[in-house]
Amino acid sequence: MRPACLPFFVYGTLRPGERNHDRVLRGRVASVEAAVLPGTLLFDGPGYPYAVDDPRGAGRVHGELVEPLPEAYDEVLADLDRLEEYVPGAPGNLYERVVREVRCGDGARRAWVYLAAGPIRQELLASGRRAGGDWRSRRGKCPR
């Protein structure tokens, strides 16, 4: 079954100006808009961030809402899944692709977002290093 054609909320290396944006999204995006993912915490990872649902619901992560071109949607989805090492239903995923509501200039919209999966999520909540709410502001530009 084909997943819903929702936009993607990106918060790390896929943001405009970061190392994976041009590599994965360049020329295949209809729009990019500043957005916030409420109820989420951000953690440092090994050169990239992880977002997890905040058990208290108070956190928020800043990023962008990326709308792929309709004709490129399936290809973009496959490339993002590959980049995030996400395979639907696989137990060893680093990330899970889930639908969340994000806030942007025109209100709330549903979007795909990659959140830390299973054991990684638990480890981050137990002892991970928080990265504030905006990974780009905290880390500066991602290394290229």
TrEMBL record:
Residues of the Gamma-glutamylcyclotransferase AIG2-like domain: 8-136
Ranges in a coiled coil: none
Alphabetized SUPFAM superfamilies for the sequence: Gamma-glutamyl cyclotransferase-like
Spans traversing the lipid bilayer: none
InterPro entries linked: AIG2-like_dom, GGCT-like, GGCT-like_sf
Pfam families according to UniProt: GGACT
Protein name per Swiss-Prot or TrEMBL: Gamma-glutamylcyclotransferase
Phylogenetic classification of the source organism: Bacteria, Bacillati, Actinomycetota, Actinomycetes, Kitasatosporales
